[in-house]
Amino acid sequence: MSQPTIDSRALRDALSSFATGVTIVTTADHSGEPVGMTASSFNSVSMDPPLILWSVTKTALSAPVFHKAQHFSVHVLAANQMALSNRFARSGEDKFNGIDFQLDANGVPQLAGVLTRFDCNTWSVYEGGDHWIIVGEVKNMETQKGEGLVFSGGSYATAASIQPPNPDNPNDDGPIEELLIYNLARAYVQVSRRFHASVEESGLSIPEWRTLASLHGGKSRTVPELVARTFVSPKKMNHLLTQMKQSGWLTVEDRDGAQIVTGSPKGQSQVEHLFELCAQQEAEALGASGKSGQDRLIGLLRQVIENTNE
Which runs of consecutive H residues, i.e. helices, occur in 100-179? Predict the structure, then answer.
């Protein structure tokens, strides 16, 4: 009796329903040049001795290097490191150019800012069909608290925890929970509380952040546009613009009787890190919804904004 044929595309799609963490594995080639690639095929094997494994397709450009390597490091990525994952998933370029890393005693690149790093000696390499299965013995590790980057269903996600219901506090929401205006307000307060604290820690007021963010990239806007975007009065906005102009964060000029405000490179540098921080905190708030959920939510909110614009 012949065995049924498994379609490789269907198998890949089926396996994508299993959510995995995202890692970058690094080593050095025979000449000492750094080598790295993104891998989601990572797992634990043994606690005693401490063993982990990952696999690399035999057709990968770096497969021969990893197959022969005596040492390698596995970096577990944080939720805000999607760009780093994408960089190391590509081939044919200098992946380490401009990346913050250092070499360990074995010449293996160690990437900065990751959630966890396992430094390994190669324990054994097994043939697994079209992949090499590489088992490593963990010799050193570093870890920090944070949320890990997850890959599921063909897209990135975050590993948000699910809180079980509390039997001592039954859910009795009432009609207010069904109101859009209530849910918008509650979501805004909860999501913005943490980020606004970060803004103020950076030395900016919330209106200053909103103004500079609205002018990011050297954009030009009228004063009424900034008033609408920052939720402050015209009088306060004029006072704010005077102060920010003196700081060199923006310029103000008259054009046909209207004041046009334009962001400056100095002003952009004040908020660049806040955009990255905001993206990280938003990803944590969205949880498993990921980028697709964010796009749907922003689309709905923009529709609400347009429908209620006076």
Answer: none
Task: Please provide the size of the chain in residues.
Answer: 310
H or E element, residue 64:
helix 63-68
Q: Is the pTM of this model over 0.70?
A: no
If you ran DSSP here, which 8-state letter would residue 148 be given?
B
The correct CATH number of 16-158 out of 2.30.110.10, 3.40.50.1000, 2.60.40.1090, 2.60.40.1220 is 2.30.110.10
d(CA 253, CA 262): 9
Q: Does domain 175-308 have CATH number 1.10.10.10?
A: yes
Helix (H, G, I), strand (E, B) or coil at 115: coil
CA distance between the termini of the chain: 72
DSSP string covering 227-259: HHHHT--HHHHHHHHHHHHHTTSEEEEEETTEE
- pLDDT tens, position by position, 230-264: 888 888 888 989 999 999 999 999 988 889 999 99
